Amino acid sequence: MVHALPGRYRLADPRLRHAPEAAEAARLALTGLPGVSRARASAVTGTVLVHCAPSVRPARLCAVLGAALGDPPRARSLSAATRGDAGMEPHAWHAMPALATTAALGCAPKRGLAPDEAAARLAAGGPNLLARAEARSAAAIFGEQLTSVPVLLLGASAVVSIATGGLADALAIGTVVVLNAAIATVTERSAERTIRGLSEVSPAPVPVIRGGRRLMLEVAGLVPGDLILLEPGTLVPADARLISATDLTVNESALTGESLPIAKDAGATVAVDAPLAERRSMVFRGTGVTGGSGIAVVTATGAATEIGRIQALLGDVRPPETPIERQLGEVGRELVIVNGAICAAVAGVGLLRGQPWQAMLRSAISLAVAAVPEGLPAVATTTLALGIQDMKERQILVRRLDAVETLGAVEVVCLDKTGTLTANRMATAALHVNGALFAPEALAGAQREVALALLETATLCSDVEVVGEALEGSATETALVRAGQALGLDPVVLRARWPREVTVPRAEARKRMATLHRDGEAALLAVKGDPAEVLARCTTHLTAAGPQPLDDRTRATIVSANDRMAAQALRVLGMARREGGGDPQDEQGLTWLGLAGLADPLRPGATEAIHALHGAGIRTMMITGDQSATAYAIAKELGLPRDGEVRVLEAGALRDLPAEALAALAPQADVFARVSPANKLQIVRALQANGQIVAMTGDGINDGPALRAAEIGIAMGGGGTDVAREVADIVLATDELGGLLEAIGLGRATYANIRKVLRYLVGTNASETMLMLGAAIAGLPEPLNPMQLLWLNLISDPLPALALGLEKPEPDVLAQRPHDPRAPILSRADFRRLLREGGVIGTAALVSAIGAPPGVAFHGLTLAQLAHAFLCRSETHGLLDRDRPAPNPKLMGAIGLCLALQAAAQGVGPLRRLLGLGPLGPGGIVGVAATALAPMLVNGMMGALSRRRQEEAPDA
């Protein structure tokens, strides 16, 4: 420091003398610091004059100057780099020049951090992990159970018991409370573990430059100052400032909500106060690279990233309820009101008949506990969690809780052609060269020479890498290189002769790829892509006699050949070149070489899967980048349309259509051809505008926006990109459509299981209410005492309900139509049926209470409720139907345990006395059996009649 005044500092360093480049680096580094208004560096005097805000520390200026001139970084700079100090805002990296950023972070722009320095920073700053909200402890869940409405009612009953001298009853009530809470705690904790596991997906390693070497590092090991390499398909692992970028686009929808990819620019000028969506010089954790490439220096990791800050703001906020949970919460509140009124009526009738108020209060409270199905939203959560666990065992990974219930409502599936409907095993099946169509193995003479020129161009204009004997790259490019090898081309030798200088990749509005190559003074421009686009840029065509002018007749011949090849379900590409080079951004004056037709066979079982989806009431649509003729042929072979007529809509027709017109047109198409990523998003939104529930499959980089926009985004296969897997709701382990069918079937089964659990709980609890209310109206003594009601609540509710939530999909689950997600989970007709079934059970128990020995009504009602679980296993099949559900061992085990406990209630003396039961003779046992079986038979027959009426209805 030469001299210092507030806001004005002069720094000196001998390394600046006679070093203009060093002086410029120092100026840039210091100018980029927030709070610095300007800086001037002199290579003559070796000094730097800095004008800045008074809050900027001189020590900070010295540190940045030293880093810009090559001082080794200090580990303690990590805190300044990531947390900020006076004069250094922690989130202003976007406003700093790239060189200033690397200087401030102590990173060599070419070599990255030294391994020892990176290790020190990792030790000081911790791993690059996002904090997760702490899971609720078992004690916390148990405590919540003790504050639920049923438990509070039980507590009130215990207080009344103590006040009236019933200490034994109070102790029994306490036991019931603990057991109920324990069962609910175990169930809910297991469900929470499953749900928390949805976010436990390990990110793939990322390419990093450290110490001048390219390494693949785990995301957790990144530190501020690391240089990360950005490639298509990469999930950005940390917040970073771009150092360089070539046609880089990033999907930031996870952070900003912008669905389309954003173009990034390392040299962009960005204001300090620019909003997140406008920081074009930055990339952020959790976003995905969709195109181009780049190098960026990490500026923040873990909780210091933008997504980490958002997560910290959320704190321990629990996720919102799923639609089913909200519906069940409303159902539960309605049942509380209705049953509360009935309980009050029972107590009122008893008081009018002269019953002691204490006894009637305890009975009313106990009836309320038994009659109100507690925790209905928890029932949905638990059943959804069980469904997720079942899917995981079948290699179907669910990443969002409500995705399970949405799966069962899917009405349209948009299928990516390549790799989903086809096997993605491309092979070059035909070449059109020298005016004629040939199979590659049939080439000879002059045609072979022209074909070699075409395949040389295809090999040069590709990103396929030769690794030993293997080829690594896209299926399309690999097939072309392999065809060249079959004709004797050596890609390694060819590329060594013609090194690549410039690559212009295929892009959204550019359906071709161009590469510029040089061999000494000679240059060669190679182009491949959409036949129409490439042909439009050609002025000559290669023949056996050499290049010839490309006249209209020859163009028409090429167009006709393209149509014939596409009609054979071939993916067709055009190849052209220009000797002497040219502009790869705007190729002109090219020589047409010919067409290459690539065959991609249908995936085995794809046709059967399409028919199965149609049988499930689901419409299928194919989305492809192929030409219309190719898409038409493949759709016809698949049997994609239900009526046999394939309707193809080209993406070009979508571009200028108003949203309303597209919404009307989209549902009529079976195939969308020549589709870009933006078109996929348009298609999904157009289908949704018609009120349809859309599932979108994909595995590529550019599928992210459409996968996120669809109600269900499904990432297909283990070979998909990180971007696709990150935004998808469902990840399938394979590309087989059978996995998609299985996922839909399991989603429907899970939704059906929730309805089965509801049918059981609401119906059986209604039976208790009907019994008590009927007895009160008829002037009978209480058929069940408070302890018996509590015992019923403990024995017949939790275990059978849990087992019903584990039912396997019914055999015809994919023969039914999707359920309407907008309809309530229980309609008015459903409620009428449940009340009818509960009324039948309650009436049978009431008859037993009138004419049978004491205890028969209690045992009969308990067994009738357990038997009702078997009727609840299916809404479409009876117990004796041929297509009845397969045995459920878990339900059998739950019923067996409940029966054993019920037998203990009668056989164990202290328990029998606590429940107020007497001995059961042979007549009593017969009465119990009749009370249990009669409702099952009546409800079974009524269900069969109801199903028959539905089948005979005109709109069935």
What does this structure look like?
With 956 residues, this protein is of the alpha+beta class. Helices cover 47% and strands 17% of the residues. The strands form 5 sheets. Strands 14, 15, 18, 19, 20, 21, 22, 23 and 24 form a 9-stranded mixed beta sheet that branches. It has an 8-stranded mixed beta sheet with strand order 12-30-29-28-13-25-27-26, sandwiched between helices. A hairpin with a 4-residue loop joins strand 3 and strand 4. Helix 12 runs parallel beside helix 28 and helix 30 runs antiparallel to helix 34. It is flat. The termini are far apart.
Furnish the topology, listing elements before pairings:
Elements: E1 3-5, E2 8-12, H1 20-31, E3 36-42, E4 47-52, H2 58-68, H3 77-83, H4 98-104, H5 115-125, H6 138-145, H7 149-163, H8 167-196, E5 206-210, E6 213-217, E7 227-230, E8 239-251, H9 253-256, E9 262-263, E10 282-283, E11 288-300, H10 306-314, H11 323-352, H12 357-371, H13 376-393, E12 396-398, H14 403-407, E13 412-416, H15 417-421, E14 427-433, E15 436-438, H16 445-460, E16 465-467, E17 470-472, H17 475-486, H18 491-497, E18 500-504, E19 512-519, E20 522-529, H19 531-536, E21 538-543, E22 546-549, H20 552-567, E23 571-579, E24 590-599, H21 606-615, E25 619-623, H22 628-638, E26 648-650, H23 659-665, E27 671-673, H24 677-689, E28 694-698, H25 704-709, E29 712-715, H26 722-727, E30 730-732, H27 737-778, H28 786-796, H29 798-804, H30 828-851, H31 856-871, H32 889-907, H33 909-914, H34 922-952
Parallel strand pairs: 13-25, 13-28, 21-24, 25-27, 26-27, 28-29, 29-30
Antiparallel strand pairs: 1-2, 2-4, 3-4, 5-6, 5-7, 7-11, 8-9, 8-10, 8-11, 12-30, 14-15, 14-24, 16-17, 18-19, 19-20, 20-23, 21-22, 23-24
Helix pairs in contact: 1-2, 1-4, 2-4, 6-8, 7-8, 7-12, 8-13, 8-28, 11-12, 11-13, 11-27, 12-27, 12-28, 13-27, 16-17, 20-22, 23-24, 27-29, 27-30, 27-31, 28-29, 28-31, 29-32, 30-31, 30-34, 31-32, 31-34
